[in-house]
Design goal:
The structure is a single chain. With 100 residues, the protein is α+β, with helices and mostly antiparallel strands. It has four helices and three strands, in the order αβααββα. Strands 1-3-2 form a three-stranded antiparallel beta sheet. β2 and β3 form a beta hairpin. The longest helix has 22 residues, at 46-67.
Length: 100
């Protein structure tokens, strides 16, 4: 559960509690998609595609931990993360994403 939910939500679910809804006035979302991924993956061996994605998204994961940005999901060649969602980051959530 900790790999897909914020800690407090995962703990509530684990304990059989319903997580309370939360509100943020604003969040900043990072979304990446590799341009030409279908063509790129069609020219490479499968293990090279997997290695490329692993290196890229491992680095994104490191950056998310360093900057306090919450990783939402990776699907194929897409990566999504959010600032000011799990941690209060009122003053600089957009800057955190810009530096991401």
């Amino acid at each position: 559960l900790l790999s897909i939910f914020p800690r407090h939500v995962a703990e509530a679910l684990r304990d059989g509690r319903k997580p309370a809804p939360e509100h943020r006035d604003s969040v900043t979302i990072f979304f990446s998609d590799i341009v030409g991924f279908t063509n790129i993956s069609g020219t490479l061996e499968p293990h090279k595609v997997s290695d490329m994605l692993d290196r890229l998204y491992s680095r994104f994961d490191e950056l998310s931990r360093e900057t306090g940005i919450f990783k939402v999901e990776t699907i194929g060649d897409a990566y999504m993360a959010v600032a000011n969602l799990v941690e209060e980051q009122h003053g600089d959530h957009a800057a955190r994403i810009a530096l991401f």
